């Protein structure tokens, strides 16, 4: 408990914010690079909906920079927390789900890159939960983000521009689509609860 209190106390400290800013910036750059082939094969008008995780971390990177400049943007904050949590959890579940279907076996199918991606994406979700209490987004911003997020899901699985899945998981892309939709709803509800808790404590 003491360690958690110390860690939470770091959230506003400049050195910690700069560390997270650099980590998220580098992760964002790598994320767009990782999506490079899929972006090249996607019709230009849908490209904005393809690189989900790096766009989420980009939102949070900007939020951190604004935080360091003593500025805030409620809309960017809402985009950051909802998408960070959603795609952070989504990626971990997809990797584990894909591994469970791999004929070579669960653990043998997991490479160092899988573990790196799970660690980094879980970190995305944790960041959203850690910083949400410090941010100023309200119902209006969450509603706007909800429209974007659900539209993204509809296009991803309606036009088949979702992040590439393993061949074993691709067979179940309709189930992945439903899981993604319910994860979006869950993410939205979580941060609506944060708003309500903040309202009651103010």
From TrEMBL:
Keyword Methyltransferase applies: no
Membrane-spanning residues: 15-34, 46-68, 75-100, 112-132, 175-195
Taxonomic superkingdom: Bacteria
Keyword entries, A-Z: Membrane, Transmembrane, Transmembrane helix
Protein name as catalogued: DUF1405 domain-containing protein
